[in-house]
Specification:
Elements: E1 2-10, H1 15-25, H2 28-33, E2 38-44, E3 52-59, H3 62-70, H4 73-83, E4 87-95
Antiparallel strand pairs: 1-3, 1-4, 2-3
């Protein structure tokens, strides 16, 4: 089962954009993309909200996502969220494997 997670990071003073930039510049984004089971990890900037960044994070399975959540990178991500004083809104979608029944 494939999972897509939309995370809306919101802050003030363009902190959400600064967070996404630091995630990219520090190499964390590349490390996450290289993890087993990661299918997509991309940031988007809403046109109508300059204080929010959308992350689309897609994983091949729950197991892959669980391993990611247990990785040391999660502590680094949490520290950056705190540094930039961000709030998060999370949406999770799952796609059932399609096949003949």
């Amino acid at each position: 089962m494939k999972f897509t997670i939309n995370i809306y990071y919101t802050g003030t003073d363009s902190n959400a954009r600064k967070f996404a930039q630091e995630m990219t510049d520090s190499g964390l984004v590349d490390k996450i993309r290289a993890e087993e089971g990661n299918l997509r990890y991309e940031y988007f900037l809403p046109l109508d909200d300059s204080q929010t960044v959308l992350l689309i994070d897609e994983w091949a399975s729950q197991e892959a996502l669980d391993l990611h959540h247990k990785s040391p990178m999660m502590q680094q991500i949490a520290a950056l969220r705190e540094k930039y004083h961000l709030k998060m809104k999370v949406q999770r979608f799952c796609e059932m494997n399609k096949g003949k029944v």
